[in-house]
Amino acid sequence: MKKQIRLLGIDDSPFTFTDKYATVIGVVMRGGEYLECVLSSQVSIDGNEATAVCKEMIQNTKHRQQLKAAMLDGVALGGFNIVDIQELYESTNLPIITITRDPPDFEKIKHALQNNFYDWKKRWMVLKKGDLFTVKTSHNPIYVKCAGIGREEAEEIINLSTIRGVIPEPIRVAHVIASGVTRGESYGKA
What is the number of domains present in the chain? Predict the structure, then answer.
């Protein structure tokens, strides 16, 4: 695999549950080294349009034909606005990789969905789609789901695009930009 493959990293901005919307930032990078483009959109907090927003972001970038994969910080944007990664892959024909630092607490997530959403079963089914696997890093392991790409190739892309720590650079840069735009200065880990 080429070191300079184009990847789209997507993350949402920090938000509070009194906010109506969260900013969504996408960055197109060559591997983990060269930033080519910044995209922005928004999702409603706990809404249901995150898949459509990601699809639009992918389809409308001038870099679409060169993208090899999209990487998301987790499977949801703006709270429980869940991205259906299988639907996103099928509608864009672009492999999708989600990455989280911590193993999901599925019982806690299910309980929160049941207590807060009339359509909790639908959200739960989308959230549970696909296999979750662990990728070892030189630091802590990360937890990954993917659609349209096998585990080995996903791990290769993750390793290729991770410069320091455990989070691939496209996601880390999207996080830094989203945090800085929202709070005036970036903070925290992706």
Answer: 1
